[in-house]
């Protein structure tokens, strides 16, 4: 049949589908993704900036050097989050980047810009370190374009992971510390632990600088580098991470990457990730750091997007170490509680007390020693449930050496507890009865604490 005699509708319908399909292809082409780099050819610095907006959070818009930023979908009236990844051993896109972008756009109406420097971050780590200065200059140049369209310096928030944290520090230094905020997620340690403040992230690089430390004994830096430095579980070994080299790559990277996953979880979940200033993690676990009076005037720092980490202070202190414990998996939040046992009379030997909180088929324990001739022992206990949901407490006395039952002297005293932060003006909750505990018969007591 001659095509010239076909009905018009027969010709229009295929054309409609062809047009719709081509339009869909064009739309997909507008969404840019991270590059992949070869281990052999990955050292050439090829920086790209991908814009993600709250109206289209899953589609990255590639911002070219010559493109008008205002015509790209960038909203100069909103805050801007710039994500900078670190060393990429395999030359691949960071596996966590999409989750972090989604988390940021899920809690705030902002522009999110992901910096793709995979090519310059691949191959040998020292080579990636050599690219840090050049990358910092390129990001600074890009920020200059943002300022030209009316973006305030104080509205720019750099989020740097590992090596990217020190890149953020350099960028902040180029702007003389006037950028709003820098968040370092386990800032890299190798090549930077002994670096000068001008060469690494430090509190002078932005109006507010914070860092989350999770691998300070390996890939992360051990020294404080911000106004506030969060040390999760002491900043070293993280719960839930493998402890045997047979686990392969996950064994090497799990602690280091926990900072990223923890930060994403803190953005996504409603439980407050509050931390407490303390001279050491040991003192924190011993129950010696219960509030945030010194130096934060009772406003405890919280991981997330609160201004200045939630601190209500005009002048921020610098390089303050704060500690918090976490669970082994997302959402990672646990409730911190002080537990105490007050002896009725002094004992002639050290007294080891184990305390266990039980709630909804879950339990958590801690132990502490009351030194001989002293009356009070205390420690930190963390549980997945808040104190007012704890159903019962179990107490047990542990001997350092084995003793026959008839030779044992029972431990007699009072048990008290409180949620952190502990306000010194408020009384702790103490069980009214005198408790007698032994090593052979754990003592179980009901708790009835009202929720606020």
Automatic annotation (TrEMBL):
Localization, per the record, is:
Secreted
Biological process (GO) annotations? lipid catabolic process
Question: Which Pfam family is one of this chain's hits?
Answer: Lipase
Which cellular component appears as one GO term in the record?
extracellular space
UniProt catalytic activity: 1,2-di-(9Z)-octadecenoyl-sn-glycero-3-phospho-L-serine + H2O = 2-(9Z-octadecenoyl)-sn-glycero-3-phospho-L-serine + (9Z)-octadecenoate + H(+); 1-(9Z-octadecenoyl)-sn-glycero-3-phospho-L-serine + H2O = sn-glycero-3-phospho-L-serine + (9Z)-octadecenoate + H(+); 1-hexadecanoyl-2-(5Z,8Z,11Z,14Z-eicosatetraenoyl)-sn-glycero-3-phospho-L-serine + H2O = 2-(5Z,8Z,11Z,14Z)-eicosatetraenoyl-sn-glycero-3-phospho-L-serine + hexadecanoate + H(+)
- Which residues of this protein are catalytic? 162, 186, 256
Keywords in alphabetical order, please: Calcium, Disulfide bond, Glycoprotein, Hydrolase, Lipid degradation, Lipid metabolism, Metal-binding, Secreted, Signal
Q: Which residues form a coiled coil?
A: none
Q: Which InterPro entries match?
A: AB_hydrolase_fold, Lipase, Lipase_LIPH, Lipase_N, TAG_lipase
Question: Which residue range or ranges hold the Lipase domain?
Answer: 22-332
The GO terms describing molecular function are: metal ion binding; phospholipase A1 activity
Q: So what family is this one in?
A: Belongs to the AB hydrolase superfamily. Lipase family.
Q: Which PANTHER family match?
A: LIPASE, PHOSPHOLIPASE A1 MEMBER A
Q: What name appears for this protein in its UniProt entry?
A: Phospholipase A1 member A
């Amino acid at each position: 049949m001659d095509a010239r005699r076909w009905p018009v509708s027969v010709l229009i319908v295929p054309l409609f589908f062809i047009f719709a399909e081509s339009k869909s292809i064009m739309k997909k082409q507008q969404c840019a993704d991270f590059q992949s780099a070869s281990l052999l050819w990955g050292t050439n610095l090829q920086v790209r900036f991908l814009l993600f907006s709250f109206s289209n959070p899953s589609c990255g818009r590639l911002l070219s050097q010559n493109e008008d930023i205002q015509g790209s979908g960038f909203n100069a009236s909103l805050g801007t989050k710039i994500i900078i990844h670190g060393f990429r051993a395999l030359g691949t896109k960071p596996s966590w980047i999409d989750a972090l972008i989604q988390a940021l756009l899920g809690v705030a109406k902002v522009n999110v810009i992901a910096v793709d420097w995979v090519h310059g971050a691949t191959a040998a780590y020292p080579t990636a370190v050599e690219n840090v200065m050049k990358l910092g200059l390129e990001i600074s140049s890009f920020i200059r374009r943002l300022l030209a369209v009316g973006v305030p310096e104080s509205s720019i928030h750099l989020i740097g992971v590992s090596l990217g944290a020190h890149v953020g520090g350099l960028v902040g230094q180029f702007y003389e510390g006037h950028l709003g905020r820098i968040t370092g997620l386990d800032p890299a340690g190798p090549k930077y632990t002994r670096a000068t403040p001008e060469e690494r992230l430090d509190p002078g690089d932005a109006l507010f600088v914070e860092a989350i430390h999770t691998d300070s004994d390996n890939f992360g830096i051990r020294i404080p580098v911000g106004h506030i430095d969060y040390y999760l579980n002491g900043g070293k070994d993280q719960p839930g991470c493998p402890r045997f080299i047979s686990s392969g790559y996950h064994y090497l990277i799990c602690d280091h990457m926990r900072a990223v996953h923890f930060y994403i979880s803190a953005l996504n979940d409603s439980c407050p990730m509050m931390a407490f200033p303390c001279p050491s993690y040991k003192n924190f676990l011993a129950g010696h750091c219960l509030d945030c009076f010194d130096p934060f005037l009772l406003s405890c720092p919280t991981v997330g997007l609160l201004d200045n980490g939630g601190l209500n202070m005009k002048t921020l202190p610098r390089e303050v170490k704060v500690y918090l414990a976490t669970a082994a998996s997302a959402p990672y939040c646990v409730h911190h509680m002080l537990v105490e046992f007050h002896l009725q009379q002094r004992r002639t030997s050290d007294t080891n007390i184990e305390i266990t909180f039980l709630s909804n088929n879950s339990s958590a324990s801690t132990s502490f020693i009351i030194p001989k001739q002293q009356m009070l022992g205390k420690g930190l206990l963390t549980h997945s449930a808040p104190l007012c949901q704890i159903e019962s407490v179990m107490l047990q006395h542990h001997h350092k050496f084995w003793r026959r039952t008839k030779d044992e002297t029972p431990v007699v005293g009072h048990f008290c507890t409180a949620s952190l932060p502990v306000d010194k003006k408020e009384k702790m909750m103490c069980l009214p009865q005198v408790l007698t505990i032994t090593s052979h018969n754990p003592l179980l007591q009901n708790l009835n604490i009202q929720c606020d």
